[in-house]
Design brief:
The structure holds two protein chains of two kinds. By secondary structure, chain A is mainly beta. Chain A is globular, with a radius of gyration of 13 Å. The termini of chain A are far apart. In chain B, a hairpin with a 2-residue loop joins strand 9 and strand 10. In chain B, strands 2, 4, 5, 9, 10 and 11 form a six-stranded mixed sheet that branches. In chain B, strands 1-3-8-7-6 form a five-stranded antiparallel sheet, with no helix packed on it. Classes of the chains: A mainly beta, B mainly beta. Chains A and B meet through strand 4, strand 5, strand 9 and strand 10 of A and strand 5, strand 9 and strand 10 of B.
């Protein structure tokens, strides 16, 4: 069966520090991969999606970047965090039938 | 206008009550519809898909009205464990990728 792993679960980082969140999927090949952010009291906002290795599309201009170095690995990064980057970050994957499965999420607090 | 809109609630209902949520979407090209459930500080999990003919899963019934561009979720005989935020999800296809849009969620609290 397919599983998705996301870590760390929680993170407290100072403003200006770098960020690296990792997401891996097992049990499938060539998945579509996504990074979402959920701010308090708001819906999920799509940040990046990837349909293959090295293929990254960005939905909104921001302080973040994403990379897909391997088929089942998706990384969310930042060189310098801002206070506004705080939120709940969710990785997700989908096969071709549109059903999305989410990782357990990373709660990021920038202080 | 937001692409997917939901009443944020909160809905506070007693155990055993029937509660219904609606969700409207703006893109008439939307093709797939889902309800996700999200517990506090957890990731969203698929609750059920929503089909044009309507579908039922135990105490949960989902319906789609394409003409009016809304979907609904009905929960009968509410349980304490139903307390969560329910996210409406709409997917429309753009080129070779599915574009998934979430509502902001409706918060439900079931009380004893």
């Amino acid at each position: 069966s397919q599983t998705i792993h996301q870590w760390p679960a929680t993170l407290v980082q100072p403003v200006g520090s770098p960020l690296s969140l990792e997401c891996t999927v097992e049990g499938t090949s060539n998945p579509n991969l996504y990074w979402y952010r959920q701010a308090a009291g708001r819906g999920l906002q799509l940040l990046f999606y990837s349909v293959g290795i090295g293929q990254i599309s960005s939905e909104v201009p921001q302080n973040l970047s994403a990379s897909r170095p391997q088929d089942r690995q998706f990384i969310l990064s930042s060189k310098k965090l801002l206070l506004s980057d705080s939120g709940f970050y969710l990785c997700a994957w989908s096969p071709q039938d549109s059903r999305y499965t989410f990782g357990s999420g990373t709660r990021l607090t920038v202080v | 206008r937001k692409e997917v809109e939901q009443d944020p609630g909160p809905f506070n209902v007693p155990e055993g009550a029937t509660v219904a949520f609606n969700c409207t979407y703006s893109n008439s090209a939307s093709q797939s519809f889902f309800w996700y459930r999200q517990d506090c500080r957890k990731e969203p999990k698929l609750l059920m898909s929503v089909y044009s003919s309507g579908n039922e899963d135990g105490r949960f019934t989902a319906q789609l009205n394409r003409a009016s561009q809304y979907i609904s979720l009905l929960i009968r005989d509410s349980k304490l464990s139903d307390s969560a935020t329910y996210l409406c999800v709409v997917i429309f296809v753009l080129c070779n990728n599915n574009d998934m849009r979430f509502g902001a969620g409706t918060r439900l609290t079931v009380k004893p």
